[in-house]
Every structure is written in C-alpha cells, then in structure tokens.
Write a structure and sequence with these properties.
This is Cytochrome (Ubi)quinol oxidase subunit III. It holds the Pfam family COX3. The chain has 6 helices and no strands. The chain is mainly α and 208 residues long. The chain is elongated.
C-alpha cells in the first residue's frame, strides 16, 4: 500500500519504505540524476590526471611516492564500510531502527578511519617528501582528484551522522527511510570511485 504521510501503515512500515511515497520515489530518481552529474565530474578529473601524471617537473614520481600497503589498508576499510551500509539497509527493511543506527554508526567510524589514513598520507607527502599541491602538474592533478574524493567522504560522514540523529528524534518512517537509502547510495558511489582511484592512480602509478 502506498501512503503519502510519515506514519507507518497499521503500525508497520512497508517492506521498502524508501519507495512507499511519491516523494520518496522522486528523491531516488533525483539522486540518480545527481550521481550521473558526479560521474561526469569525476570522469573529467580522471582524464586530467591521466594526461598530467607523467609531468613531474623533476619532483617525486608516483612510483617513488606511493606506499601501497597503506593505501590498500584504506581501500579495505572503505570497502568494509560499503558492506556495513548494506547491512544498514537490510535492518531498515526489517524495520529495526536500532540495528539500522548501529550499522550506520559503524559506517561512519570506518569512514573516519579511511579519512584519517588519507590525511596521514598527504601529511607524509608534503612534509617528508616535499610533494605539495604546486610541486608539479602531476601533484596538482593528484591532490585535486584524491582530495576531491576525500571531501566527498567527509561530506558523507557528516550526512550519515545527521541522519542517525534524525532516526532517534523522528523514528524510522516513510519520510526518514528515503534519506537513509539515498545516503547509502551516495556511500556506495564514493566507494566505487575509490576503487577506480586505487587502480588508476596508485596501482598504475607503481607499475608505470
């Protein structure tokens, strides 16, 4: 049954509460369009990086800079966070608000762990390897692409944190459910983008 208000039907949520209202379905469609625009934007940044990655201006090269075990650890953490966001959506479909908030909280913690590793990585590059934003065209392209993704991760952490607060203030309803689902879509998107960054920037940088 489709409902247009925030209260559960007969005390229970529909199986897919994120799609239970027209507003919720419109949010999902609108967000898919937003992700399409984000894909084009990241595609442009990837193309720029590939064009400039060889222009080191006598500065450090990718092979000299990158420490793959550290980046692989960050990648593992982010991929696990994608799994916990899946568990969160499963809890939402079961109508279990507490389990939903728990899995979202774990996702946030893992996201913070990833962000902490990335900040440490940048610190090492700038302080110990003299690889700054303006060192070369390669460094500018690297920090723009990877830093832009990091900003997306930071925004996702803040967004999911606010949603957790809404869940405890307003409960799990057909109004809050689309927000949870859309935030999970966003999180999966930035995880997929990172897989491409890990492959194109780090792995190709070490072998190229």
């Amino acid at each position: 049954m489709t409902t247009s208000h925030a209260e559960p039907v007969n005390g229970q949520l529909p199986h897919e509460p994120e799609k239970a209202t027209l507003e919720g379905r419109n949010k999902l469609i609108g967000f898919w369009l937003f992700l399409g625009g984000e894909t084009v934007l990241f595609g442009t940044l990837f193309a720029t990086f590939l064009a400039l990655r060889g222009q080191t201006n006598e500065g450090p090269s990718a092979n000299e800079l990158f420490h793959l075990p550290l980046v692989a650890a960050a990648t593992f953490i982010l991929l696990v966070s994608s799994l916990t966001s899946v568990f969160a959506i499963q809890a939402m479909h079961r109508g279990n608000r507490n389990a939903l908030a728990l899995w979202l909280g774990i996702t946030v913690v893992l996201g913070l762990g990833f962000l902490g590793i990335e900040i440490y990585e940048f610190y090492e590059y700038v302080v110990h390897k003299e690889f700054g934003m303006t060192t070369s065209a390669f460094s500018s392209a690297f920090y723009t692409l990877v830093g832009f993704h990091g900003a997306h991760v930071a925004f996702g952490i803040l967004w999911i944190g606010l949603i957790i607060g809404q869940l405890f203030r307003k409960g799990l309803t057909v109004v809050t459910a689309p927000k949870v689902y859309v935030s999970a879509m966003y999180w999966h998107f930035i995880d997929v983008v990172w897989v491409f960054i890990f492959t194109v920037v780090y792995l190709l940088g070490k072998v190229g």
